[in-house]
Amino acid sequence: MCGIVGAVARRDVTSTLTEGLRRLEYRGYDSCGIAVLQQGVPRRVRSVTRVANLIAQVEEVALSGTVGIAHTRWATHGAPVTENAHPIFSNGDIALVHNGIIENHEALRDELKALGYVFESDTDTEVIAHLIHHTCQQQSSGCLFDAVRHSLQRLHGAYAIAVFAKSEPGRVIGARAGSPLVVGLGEQGNYLASDAMALAGTAENFIYLEEGDMVELSLDGARVVDRHGDNVQRSIKAQCLSGNAVELGPYRHYMQKEIFEQPSVIADATEAVQMITPDLFGQGAELAFREVDSVLILACGTSYYSGLTAKYWLESLAQVSTQVEVASEYRYRSSVTNPNTLVVVVSQSGETADTLAALKHAQLLGHRHTLAICNVAGSTITRHAQLQYMTSAGPEIGVASTKAFTTQLVALFLLALALGKQRGRVSAMEEAAYLNQLHHLPAELNSVLALEAQIIAWSEAFAGKEHALFLGRGLHYPIALEGALKLKEISYIHAEAYPAGELKHGPLALVTSQMPVVTIAPNDALLEKLKSNMQEVRARGGQLYVLADANSRIGSSDSVHVIRMPENYGSLSPILHVVPLQLLAYHTACARGTDVDKPRNLAKSVTVE
């Protein structure tokens, strides 16, 4: 949630800041703004529409400066109105942007009001700006860096901030605690951002700030201190990030682009894998895997559904007991700790607050072996976990995850094979067969994408509905859950998913001719059971929309609409079956005219609890 960009440069930074915001739009926001030090005075422009509108306003007022900060805000404290948009000012001197939540803002607000500060917004952020200003006034040195450091010691909660002051031109101060912040080092200046992609093409080297770090940016470089105030040298990572990676190209929406990128990103993820070894998951994995006797997967949202799918693989292929928990629930209950459990955290961004907190909680409980499956190198979760696997899906801009999900499934399937092989459950012949399937998966995905025209026809029927039911059995039940989530996220149609065998235990009461029932029907051992469940729907006048494998022998009729998938793809079938569900959600949303890439009330990277 929310995006921060900051800059100190030898040239006007307004275009750098606004382009950075444009690349952070995927994170979700309902207002945006920019502030620069222009002729020695902080000036800002804010908008409650899109970044494109903000850019037009910047050009209209000829905003320019070599020091500046910018922000996209997802409202928590205070409505999404201009007065609450960032940057927030204090007394014409301090300009500040903030991601996160300050839990003790009410007490601080009362204290600052008593000191004479007038609040112009309903945000918790304004407390930080006034507190820094007051601290500056009280200090004999008046040093902004020291004022920020002392002010942050009074805050309870999570934050990433960027701040500059009229009294200290040429400097931007950044700090993080519980919310990500990265420093970009470039030839023309130095920068801050919530995500390195915001600085693609501007900075060549990056410093990922650690928890509690502060940084002082100037033209001379970046000075970092840790939570104790001691100067530290954080590692500098060179990254070749291309702005082209976040260009829309010929597609109508980023979600559509990312759906169609799945064959190529999965090819990238699998083509180099010629043998299943623990080394795929990082240095030390072989020793850790030897001690593992169970797996605990922690994740949220779509990533949670990838974990539910992986449970079937881990228990069938590796024969290792597996639990899957919603990260936000796990950390708030009493649980039994097994030091030989492999704790797997799954997150697209690597900054998901609930998942990161669950990882830390597991480690505090004594879990020694942790693995992060993530799409963003250098993210907080990858730095905190013992082992890492990068899914390499590339930037995913659409809020509704697509290619990140399927690459997570590939990673988790490889994990099941690695553990299975180490435990003697996967033979050399089986390993070769599974690798062959993985290497041919991109071609199979292309054949599924070729079904788009048929799925568009389905979407026209769905566009007029307000409810939908998704059914799956066994390995495909989590895929039904993911399909329902996609539809509700971007089309705003209420959708629920159930194991098909649960129909008669409640959901069947909802089935009418106005309730489309999407059924995932692979030709597996549960097909005949599933056909019986489908008959239960037909007998109540329901309309079935069936994704059937080519050889599953399910015929079409007035009430049964069938799309023929390729032949059954065995254990990897879920990766194929989720793609038409992504396309169904996408085209239904298009037909309903919703904002596909930026659905209401949602954010891509959920960095607050």
How far the N terminus sits from the C terminus, by CA atoms, comes to 11 Å
Beta content: 15-25%
Please tell me how large the radius of gyration is: 25 Å
Count of extended strands? 25
Alpha plus pi helix count: 18
Helix coverage percent of residues?
A: 25-40%
Q: What oligomeric assembly is this protein in?
A: single chain
- Which structural category fits the helices and strands? alpha/beta
The whole-number mean of residue pLDDT values reads 91
- The low-confidence runs, each spanning 5 or more residues with pLDDT under 50, are none
Shape: globular
Query: Widest sheet: strand order?
Result: 3-2-4-1-10-9-11-15
Largest sheet: 8 strands, antiparallel
Notable traits:
single chain, 609 residues, alpha/beta, eight-stranded antiparallel sheet
Verbal overview:
The chain is of the alpha/beta class and about 600 residues long. It contains 18 helices and 25 strands. The chain has an eight-stranded antiparallel beta sheet, covered by helices on one side. A seven-stranded antiparallel beta sheet has the order 5-6-7-8-12-13-14. Strands 17-16-18-19-20 form a five-stranded parallel beta sheet, with helices on both faces. The model has no long low-confidence stretch (mean pLDDT about 90).
